[in-house]
Amino acid sequence: MTFDPAAIRAEFPILRRQVNGHPLVYLDNAASAQKPRAVIEAMARVMEGSYANVHRGLHTLANETTDAYEAARSSVARFVGAAPEEIVFTKGGTEAVNLVAAGLAADIQPGDEIVLSQMEHHANIVPWHFLRERQGAVLRFAKVTDDGRLDLDHLKSLIGARTRVVAISHMSNVLGTINPAAEIVRIAREAGALVLLDGCQAIVHQPVDVKALDVDFYVFSGHKLYGPTGIGALYGKAGRLAGLRPYQGGGEMIGTVSEEVITYADPPHRFEAGTPPIIEAIGLGAAIDWLAGQDREAIAAHEAGLYARVRDKLNGANWLRVLGEAPGKGAILSFTVEGAHAHDVAQILDRYGVAVRAGTHCAEPLMARYGVTSSARASFALYNTEDEADRFVEALVKTQAFFA
Ligand SMILES: Cc1ncc(COP(=O)(O)O)c(C=O)c1O
Predict the structure, then answer these.
(1) Residue 240 is part of a domain; what is its CATH number?
(2) Please, what is the Cα angle at 273 between 272 and 278, to 5 degrees?
(3) Rounded mean pLDDT, 136-153
(4) 147 and 174 in contact (C-beta within 8 Å)?
(5) Catalytically annotated residue among 362, 367, 389, 395
(6) I want to staple 342 with a disulfide (CB 3.0 to 4.6 A). Which of 102, 274, 374, 377 is the partner?
């Protein structure tokens, strides 16, 4: 297996685009990544060749599409080391966390505690706030250190007899910090708590084996993983999925329905009410099969090299504040520029064809932790090049000059 960024780029049609008279430098990958031809073609293929609704048909097209949909589930399962029955398709990472929180709600008593961290995305905060508002759960937030690490001592001090769930990001979408999953699981298990890892960012950049991690739930989205929007996945240990109340009711998630009673289908279908995102699931399967065929170690080294290159070039910039300098962090650079609002920074970078994100990154508690209201964020993917890293730095230096 080899990894050649130039050859990879050629597989992503959109990367040939010009933006504002410049070649596109796409560094908004942590928000959503671009799609390789393998994904675009797999989705077009099903629409052109065999599309029908799944699981309910008795004709050839329905059977073909059902097979493709379930094959996508098997691809996802293989990718994370799970069994297909342990993979629920959702519309994204957000819906996957909501499904777990809603599924546990009836078992949460007033005073039960949910432990999160200050670096969570709102997707892994707000569903738990629902349990606070509606069930009287207590939320506890593990602190983040100045350099962007999870404060493990503080985390340990928060977990106790009332802890029901520990829900923490595997990799921060703002800081790039990769959290010590094994240690988090160990601490949570000692207290008998369930563990959910938000893998929306981590799974893009590193192999994930849910059995080795021994988590109860692992969630991620398709659109950050070079797949389409409208699709994500929830891994749940077989016994844990069976213990969740169904999230939504409707067709396909039932055993039988009468005027008096209902029975439920087994997981994962119990959690996939109605017509699922069929084409999107097949697209996610294609993205995963495509990524699994790449040299992921080489990709990780490439992305780390891009981050180190940018960080080195910006080392002397006294107008720059970087949020998150944890050792071993992933290739996400969140920053503020002295005297400039992050939105203005992003808009000026766009004039040079450089796409970055700016705002709170759906992580307001983390923004508050660092005493900022927003930041800009450049996030790297496997198709970014050293030349693009240099063009980003040049454009950022020119941008800063507007505010000096
Ligand atoms: C760490 C993290 N968790 C959850 C989400 C939400 O995922 P989705 O957009 O698939 O709902 C994101 C997306 O930005 C994220 O970065």
Answers:
(1) 3.40.640.10
(2) 60
(3) 98
(4) no
(5) 362
(6) 374
